[in-house]
Amino acid sequence: MSTPQLSVVIPVYNEEQGLHALFDRLYPALDKLGIGYEILFVNDGSRDRSAAILREQFQKRPDVTRVVLFNGNFGQHMAIMAGFEHCRGQRVVTLDADLQNPPEDTGLLLAKMDEGYDYVGSIRRQRNDSWWRHVASRAMNGLREKITRIKMTDQGCMFRAYDRNIIDAINSCKEVNTFIPALAYSFARNPAEVVVGHEERAAGESKYSLYSLIRLNFDLMTSFSLVPLQMFSMLGMLISVLSGLFFVFLVVRRLVIGPEAEGLFTLFALMFFLIGIALFGIGLLGEYVGRIYQQVRHRPRYLVEAVLEQSEKGEEGSGKGKAAAPDAAETAPRKARAKAKPAGDAAHPSLFADGEE
């Protein structure tokens, strides 16, 4: 099978309401580019009919459509990592399935890469998110840039283009917790950004809660910088010096003025403040230790149950996958996949449409 010039990786999680609208816009937009392409959908353990709809679309366009099926929900970034390990294109574009980023702007990313850039991020022209997400995103962008020294104008936008060298470098990483846009930036030799459109979600609702966004930013901070720990180390030294000076002051005051109880509540307030700082520092240290714990267990980052793709002979195939462990170079080797097995016989239970068995 010839190597396509472009691979589009799309993670899917409970998107059945908007998938048909995505298909109606995505395929014509890529056809207009006039280059060889493939679209790789990664179903991240959807609990609705997303997997069945993806199977139907694969049967309609098996020449350019491939589907990776997880046997559970492992998160957006793990879905993209699986897409990177299975894609074949010389250039790779990641796109969300919610149509907030128009597929028609894919040509803008590729045109920028034609200028010699190996990694192209995107900046949403006019965000249509809720006000709190907009404010939180700007605050985290500023904090992230100061801590990690990674300059991304819009870190929350996953509509990005990667050169094959960047994809190979990402695939060589064994990290359990990571933030793909920042990881790609650290490998890029000549990164750039372009302005793209941003629309309201076509259907459904966002899969990122406030808690998920906070955890995602913890992954970003702890995976790419030790500055938070170093800041607390310096803060601890400063507080130790100030505490020593304050102790000397209290001793001198007692000798000069004598014992007094008027400052008792002030001391309590100061003590609670210092305890709060200590607890926050312990929690931050725990985040780093927790990530080390997850890494050293060497558990699979995700499990691929099946891959729907057309074999080299032009037949539809459904291959069983395997666990993608942190030390595995490739998930579900293509040579081990079954040939000429009907796509409808895939083991994933959600592949069957309503009423099918």
TrEMBL record:
InterPro entries hit by this protein: Glyco_trans_2-like, Glycosyltransferase_2, Nucleotide-diphossugar_trans
Compositional bias annotation for Basic and acidic residues: 310-319
One cellular-component annotation, GO: plasma membrane
Region (Disordered): 310-357
Amino acid composition bias (Low complexity), ranges on this chain: 321-331
GO MF term set: undecaprenyl-phosphate 4-deoxy-4-formamido-L-arabinose transferase activity
Transmembrane segments: 231-252, 264-289
Any one GO biological process: lipopolysaccharide biosynthetic process
Keywords: Cell membrane, Glycosyltransferase, Lipopolysaccharide biosynthesis, Membrane, Transferase, Transmembrane, Transmembrane helix
Pfam families on file: Glycos_transf_2
SUPFAM superfamilies the record matches: Nucleotide-diphospho-sugar transferases (SSF53448)
Residue ranges occupied by any Glycosyltransferase 2-like domain in the UniProt entry: 7-168
Protein name, UniProt field: Undecaprenyl-phosphate 4-deoxy-4-formamido-L-arabinose transferase
